[in-house]
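Input chain follows. Return structure tokens only.
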Amino acid sequence: MSDQATDPATEAFVAHRNLLFTVAYEMLGSAADAEDVLQETWMRWVKVDLAEVRDQRAYLVRVTTRQALNRLRTMTRRKEAYVGPWLPEPVLTAPDVAEDVELAESVSMAMMLVLETLSPTERAVFVLREAFDVGYDEIAAAVDKSPAAVRQIAHRARRHVEARRPREVVSASETRAVLESFQRALETGELQGLLDVLAPDVVLLSDGGGVKQAAVRPVVGSSKVARFIIGGAGKVEAEITSVTTVFNGNPALVLNLDGEMDGVMTVRVEDARVTGIYYVRNPEKLTRVATETRLTRR
């Protein structure tokens, strides 16, 4: 163990692991797939002669990006056959991430869904340039394009994202305040309480993956969303409770039925109202969350 701890390859990989995971996750929207990409990156990294690597961070980002691109193209085919709306796998983030507005937005559910509308190469270029400020030459090496082509792709992706991203980015404290009102109405089953906190054009997306019950299409409008939530809660005989935590850089809820986790609900807030609700119930996307939440309670 002590030999491994002083191994230069291991030290370099561990030093950049959080960065590499975030790059892979923002490209894939799946923590499980991001972990697989890191494993593939590690297997290639240990075979490299470090003496020939001028910039270890750039090299690792390049390998991670290439592996993520390969996996992203495969995932695109999987998503086409997905039952109902596909939502990113929620990931627990440290509370301080929510206080960094720009970082919180880059991993938010709303932004991750916008990134889903980009081509694989556009997504890689946008993530590396906008989220991590990687140089055009480095990005070009990662995606096998010329620096000039990468600049054009970055400009096109940025314009695409700007047209679709949320109109405003709010602070964690504002999101938390709105979420608390939403949480009270949800747990008490107050229809008017929900209507008061929902924006008129609110959109609810629920992801059951064909395993758990969920709406197969987006639910649009405050009245329909409120009745969908209240109606769903009314059909459940178990006690519904929720716990506030931070997922994808934003305050969110873990919903429990009789103490067992049922799903993770994140919200998008604009003008002090909930404009987007994202409810992940697919058990495959909650395995990591369930493990991490159990660990944090100890």
